[in-house]
Amino acid sequence: MARFSTFLAGAALLALPFSALAQGVLIGPAGGGTAAAGAALEVRSDTKGFLPPRLTYANRVGMTNAVAGMLVYQSDSPGGQPGAGYYYYTGGGWLPLQTQGDNLGNGVAGTNINLNGNKLVGSGGNVGLRIEGLGGGRGPDNNAVLDFTIGDKGVVLPRFNYQTRAALGTTPPQGLVFFNTDTNHLNVYDGTSWQEVSTTASSATEYTYTAPGVHTYVVPDGVTSVHLEVAGASGSNRLGQDLSGPGGLVSADVQVTPLSTLYLLVGGTDGSNGDPNGSGGLSLDTNTRTPASNPNGENGGGASEVRYVTSLPTPGSLPGRSTTQLVAGGGGGGGSFLPSTGGIRYANGGGGGFRVDRSTGNLVTQGQDGDNNPNAASYAGRGGTSTSGGRQGMGSGGNDGAAGLGGNANTTSQRISQGYGPGGGGGGYFGGGSGTYGAGGTNPGVGGGGGGASYAFSNARITNVVHQQGVNTGNGYIKLTVNP
């Protein structure tokens, strides 16, 4: 049986219309002659084409025995993969068979175009390239290497910040350009240094920060001096009687270096300024320890601060106060409230910041003390100074101010139910002390919190310093002006 099958296979092969000569094999009509000289195999027909093996994409890439020169036709076009067409194996991988060389024609690309190290030129490199919307007709301008002819769209350049620019290295190519997202201006490398392209380069540029929390300002190229106006927040003023102490204001000119960073911390009336370690003192219920939990006492205002580092910002980081602080506007102290048989009593919080003594002309480097109810006991907190926190009042439930922090007022739930509400100290370079309360005797009372101290003293870097005490109501703010 095996011999009979072999005989049939041989007979079928002999029946094929081909001529087998020394130069090759011809497959074609009977009597078709010989294969072309130099061809090992020639397929000849006037009515039929050559049909190679047809494989799906998965079959083709899954072959484990492909050899260099193998040709197949991929029959499908799976999403995200090379489409249907002829592919040949190079020995190291599959490549599409370009039936018309690299002529892209006017068709639509089915996949990304990989130049594979080759150039994209116009007319052999003799003219430029033109990018246009549909319906355009002219060629590129004779003087342009790249001509955009689209009437209603622009060109978006690469966009990144100083941090990414620094990663480009110290010698980028001359003429490199990008849009700087830190300054919102174009940057161009002139072969020696980066240049900022700005229509306002010759005039002062002003930035105002009013939202409580942390902001960053990267000093642009060419900027060496800025003017800062820093105002601390007032106390929370939750009692509706304008009892909270206003925040202090300090202004100064500061010498800076390009690509250094200013951290701008804006104080809030709730005692915050973006520093997780706190700023203004809080009027707390000792049981809940939550901000603003005593309805009868106000929180001290958060200080506004400017801190400086000579490097680009690190995401998520905030430098500490002690070594980086340039300027601080003290927060105002919180007001206080006490109902009594003699009528409702209020006490104001102290104003934040420093002041000039009118009689001597000297700067008084202490925040304003808080006020007492009109009785003999001193329940009010003292203002912070340039060297120490303000002292708490002489009653119960108070805390001294500290470096950067106003003192918290701690009141028991029992005393809160009786109406006692001392005020928290204002935040600052050194915070104000909190008010306290006196619950016994014939003269019960409460006191307002002391104002926080400002900071900025003239030196080689900081000049033209001006202090004002208790001038800002509400959240703090920072105004930065680039000096021309």
From TrEMBL:
InterPro entries noted in UniProt: ALK/LTK-like_GRD
Cellular-component GO terms for this entry: plasma membrane
Keyword rRNA processing: no
Membrane topology, record value: Single-pass type I membrane protein
GO terms, molecular function: ATP binding; transmembrane receptor protein tyrosine kinase activity
Domain ALK/LTK-like glycine-rich: 228-482
Superkingdom of origin organism: Bacteria
UniProt cross-references to Pfam families, sorted A to Z: ALK_LTK_GRD (PF12810)
First and last residue of the signal peptide: 1-22
Residue span of region Disordered: 270-323, 358-421
Polar residues composition bias: residue spans: 286-297, 359-376
Major enzyme class: transferase
Assigned EC number: 2.7.10.1
Amino acid composition bias (Gly residues), ranges on this chain: 381-407
Localization per record: Cell membrane
Keyword entries, A-Z: ATP-binding, Cell membrane, Disulfide bond, Glycoprotein, Kinase, Membrane, Nucleotide-binding, Receptor, Signal, Transferase, Transmembrane, Transmembrane helix, Tyrosine-protein kinase
Coiled-coil annotated residue ranges, if any: none
UniProt main location, coarse: membrane
Name recorded for this polypeptide: receptor protein-tyrosine kinase
